């Protein structure tokens, strides 16, 4: 697949050539196409060659990627073919790149296989958070299952206590002076405490 741009500045007869291959894979039971190599031609000769990596899709689909580039910040899907080649002097980046080499119908791209990874950082963080929430939920359910029910058997006994009972109509504390000592002391009476048996 060749894109011919003609003369652009000092570049005479600029052509970008995509070398596509198709292969049949028994695992997927269908043909796949892949971008094998990218060549830059100008001044009527090949000036730069890049090997393409991970640019492939089923033959009935197209391939789409936000950036196909030779730069590391865009994941470098295009790699210079050799150290001696002039490719090292070039920085190639395609933005909103989409290609389909075979089975083109009515001049439109087929459904696109996107280059976005299924495990991007955002998706991985979502999976980790979901796992943490599931662990918390499992622990809570475990605690609820093994929680013993309370048997409501109460035994109430009269005893002296430190807090007085409050009556609705009479707000005075029930107290009685003790006569055993010279100092004035008080004891609260008519108090009850309860024992709960589990």
Tally of discrete structural domains = 2
Structural class: mainly beta
The total of beta strands comes to 13
Q: What is the CA-based Rg, rounded?
A: 41 Å
Secondary-structure element pattern, one letter each = EEEEEEEEEHEEEE
Compute the number of helices. Answer: 1
Approximately how much beta-strand content do the residues carry? 35-45%
Secondary-structure topology with pairs:
Blueprint: E1 2-8, E2 11-25, E3 30-42, E4 45-52, E5 56-58, E6 62-69, E7 78-80, E8 93-99, E9 112-114, H1 121-145, E10 153-158, E11 175-177, E12 186-188, E13 192-197
Parallel strand pairs: 6-9
Antiparallel strand pairs: 1-2, 2-3, 3-4, 3-5, 4-7, 6-8, 10-13, 11-12
Describe the protein.
- Strand 11 and strand 12 form a beta hairpin.
- The protein has one helix spanning 121-145; strands at residues 2-8, 11-25, 30-42, 45-52, 56-58, 62-69, 78-80, 93-99, 112-114, 153-158, 175-177, 186-188, 192-197.
- The protein folds into two domains: 2-116, no CATH class; 117-159.
- The chain starts with a strand and ends with a strand.
- 13% of the residues lie in helices and 43% in strands.
State the gist of this model.
The chain is mainly beta and 198 residues long.
Write a concise keyword list for the protein shown above.
198 residues, mainly beta, 2 domains, six-stranded antiparallel sheet, three-stranded mixed sheet, membrane, ATPase activator activity, VAS1/VOA1_TM
